Task: structure prediction
Amino acid sequence: DPDGSGGYSSRLALLKSAVHSFLDKMDGHTGNINISVISFSSSAALLLSGTLAEVQAQLDAANNSFDSLTANGGTNYEAALQAANNWFSGIESNGYANLAYFLTDGDPTYSNSSGNGNTVSQSVVVQALDDFSILSVRADVHAIGIGTGVNSDVLRYFDDTTQLSGDVTTNLSGGSVVAPVGEPLVVTTPAQLEAALDPGSGR
Result:
């Protein structure tokens, strides 16, 4: 989530380093591994996609789209989740165990049809949850907030690693969100982020 709010440029550098480290650690895993990296701010874009070897080759290329990523825009969870669903729809018949890491430094302030870039509204969250409900069937979704600007009361709706029993209500601008929640991680240091993305951590 390379949005421009909250001095994210330093967190973007942290995120890039952590993703490189994650892919390096994946070298030790056997079997077929398909990976995509999706950037989102006010909209979303597929930056990297393919097998582990193909994605590593893309990262090795000069001026690749991931390492060239800059911080800008707002935060549109809906666009990111739709892009993830589009990618998973092309591989979900492979019988693999699917995993999605949903990383953000901010709360959703835009959807594809509404939002002002400043307010976390009920309508923006509900629209994103429509796409999350599809993704959570296709993959285990691990939500990770980066920095203190992330409201875990909102992010928890986008994590299904440890679903708590029953629906939880959160009051937002324009109304309440009532839905199941998980237990997202919020990290504030490089070590915490790398640990959260450790493929052998079981998280």
About this structure: The chain has a mean pLDDT of 88. The helical segments are 9-26, 52-60, 77-89, 122-138, 152-155, 190-196. The radius of gyration is 16 Å. Residues 48 and 76 are 19 Å apart (CA to CA).
